[in-house]
Write a structure and sequence with these properties.
The chain folds into three domains: about 110 residues, Rossmann fold (3-Layer(aba) Sandwich), CATH 3.40.50; about 110 residues, Phosphorylase Kinase, domain 1, CATH 3.30.200; about 110 residues, no CATH class. It is built from 14 helices and ten strands. Helix 2 runs parallel beside helix 4 and helix 11 packs antiparallel against helix 14.
Length: about 350
Amino acid sequence: MDFPERNTAIVIGDFEFDRKPFKERGIEAYKVSVEAAPNAFNIAKALIVAALPGQFGLIRECCSKIYPYAEDHGLALAVLVHSDEEFVQVEKIQKEYKNTSGARIFVISALSTAAEYIARHRIEPSPIGAKIEHATDKLDDDDILLLRRAFYDCDRIYLETLGGGKASMSVFRVHAWMKQSEVGPLPLPFFAKIARPGEVDTEKYNYRAYAELYIPFNLRPNIDRRRCVQTRAKAALIGNFVDDAVPLRESLRSGHGIGSLFSLFETTLKGFRLQPFASGQKAALGQLEYFVNGRIKIDDLLKKTDVIARAQGLGLTVSPQELHDKICAAARLLECITGPNHGDLHTGICLACA
């Protein structure tokens, strides 16, 4: 189903500016009060503050009360000023408040630039009223807003909690019921990871750089970038869930470990293993020891007395420091070539998601 594009800009302030540059770009602007503005966030594309000359109190009020929540809803933020001097003054006001970096300032003489900025701003269709059902995890306001924005085209979604990745705050399998679809209401499941915006940006970059061209598409989840949204505090990474994926530890316990590990490294991650050969890299000393040191993190391990005690109960007869030194000494003598690695392999990883 194609949802109508959001083309409304809500305006706060009494200055009557020329609407023509906005209408020419398909943007309809209408005035609202500061108090009523949040009620329009789900249908608007942008927020414009158009104060009268010298009316900096209104801009301060918007900085403190309106901008942060408008930004959480993904709106483009624009402030119209009447001179270069006012431009500088508004910049100073914005610096006094946190989380207003997304607001752009435009001099009235540059209305066409402001209109073009708003017209080009990407925002998802209106996230109206998707019902969110979940089993155990308590969702905060940011979680709910992110999920409603991400699944704007659904009547309801059901969240099933999964084990978190290294950067995640929350990870879910998402079962969604579409509002309208030519095929049917229940698509295959999605995954949703909610984390800090910088962490999600890093994951999206790594996925684009490492996974999309080097791991077979049918052996990994695929990111749905249309649904990846963020607020000031959190961001959502959304993609399709590999429904038949099996955690590595389950495969090992069921006796299928050898075949699973072979498939993981010879099929799923084969693209990584080919890179040093394709680049003509020569084997060298020191690289394996450097890798071992970086992975073991002996100083952190020595603090985990419960892990050490369990290892000793299972037969460890030397200290972790001695074992670390022996491994490093052996690695020091070995030449090797290096290539990219997955970076998050563990016994809980789902084999079809590697």
